[in-house]
Amino acid sequence: MSKPTRPSGLQTPKTQGNRCLPPLLTVPPRRLVHQTGWRSKLSWLILWLNLTGVTAAEEPGPKPGGESSVMVPIEIQGRKRQYRLFVPEELRTGQKQPLVLVFHGAGSSAEDIERLTEFNRLARNEGFLVAYPQGLFRNWNDGRGALSSLAHLDNVNDLAFVDSIVRDIAKRQNLDRRRIYATGLSNGGGFSHYLAAMRPDLIAAIATVGGCIAQPLGDRFEPDEPVSVFLIHGNEDPITPVGGGGVLRGFRGRVLGAVETAQLWSKANGCQETPEGGVLDDEVDDGCRTRWLRWRNQTRGVDVTLFLIDGMGHTWPGRPPYMAEPIIGRSCYDFDASLLIWRFFAEHPKSIATMETSPRALKAR
């Protein structure tokens, strides 16, 4: 039996007793979490309350790793908005600084995603800025057009919000324009796709967990610059189906599948048609197994990497489920998603040639 392989640059410790999985392009059929009776109804009620933003007030908890961010108010198009900003004390004065934008899921908050992902700890060790924007009505307008989301119903301009955040941070810090990245969970992941497609001159790379391209965006998907993409998706995701279709059983609009999303970005980036593939080492006996696909365009220095995780639900790998397992499924502990996302970002800055020939740069000449 051949030894499992992993994409270069996304390394995890090696262990013994690995087993190969079926062919990479064979995605297991989507399975929802099965429940019966009052427990099922209660679980979906709790989930609906969370995703629509009807949640109980939370007491502020400790920041990850003892590191604290600060809330920054900002006004955009007459609306009062806010984001959290973490600036490591260890950043070198005068050195250009990368920025990672981290978007929370529907019904969640900037503080929630800050605690879950623990990017502050990584930022201190690796030397980058982290911003956690707060979605209006606890949602992001990711192009889905979902009638159940206030962000979509009110047509919130979250692209302008992100533009303002970047400008605001650039006034405060020595921002590296070649290294601005976006990542997010669920609705935050879907918005990361939307942001990169609509602002490819701004974003160098994105990474998404449980988030795919909104179907309406997929129908008109034409980014005019390459953007590297790292997708992580559980094959047993009960919220955002791995094969595409209705989010939360159609209640929250429709999205493309994980493979289709990766292929759409691959085509837009001019990558090779046939991807490389392999299987990650099975580090922990958690019932999960990770298969990967990667499409490359070495000339442009971009690639699209997809992790398909058998056995995982709508969770952030390396962290416990943020809601009850019967509602969102189980997590995967074979790797730390936040760490691999940062490694992917560090390897994919925006190329100077791309920035100099972008439509916006040419228009400014």
Task: Characterise this structure.
The protein is an alpha/beta fold and 365 residues long. It has one domain: Rossmann fold (3-Layer(aba) Sandwich), CATH 3.40.50. The protein is built from 12 helices and 12 strands. It has a 10-stranded mixed beta sheet with strand order 1-2-4-3-5-6-7-12-11-10, sandwiched between helices. It has a two-stranded antiparallel ribbon with strand order 8-9.
- Give the distance, in angstroms, between the N- and C-terminal Cα atoms: 58 Å
**Secondary-structure element order, as H and E?**
HEEEHHEHHEHEHEEEHEEEHHHH
Order of strands, widest sheet: 1-2-4-3-5-6-7-12-11-10
Secondary-structure class: alpha/beta
How many structural domains are formed by the residues? Answer: 1
Catalogue the unreliable spans: 11-46, 51-66
Beta-strand proportion:
15-25%
CATH topology: Rossmann fold
CATH architecture: 3-Layer(aba) Sandwich
Name the overall outline: globular
Name the CATH homologous superfamily: Alpha/Beta hydrolase fold, catalytic domain
CATH class: Alpha Beta
Main sheet record: 10 strands, mixed
With helices defined by DSSP (H or I, 4 residues minimum), what is the helix count?
12
Query: What does the average pLDDT come to?
Result: 82
Counting DSSP E segments of at least 2 residues, the number of strands comes to: 12
Q: Write down the Rg.
A: 19 Å
**DSSP helix fraction:** 25-40%
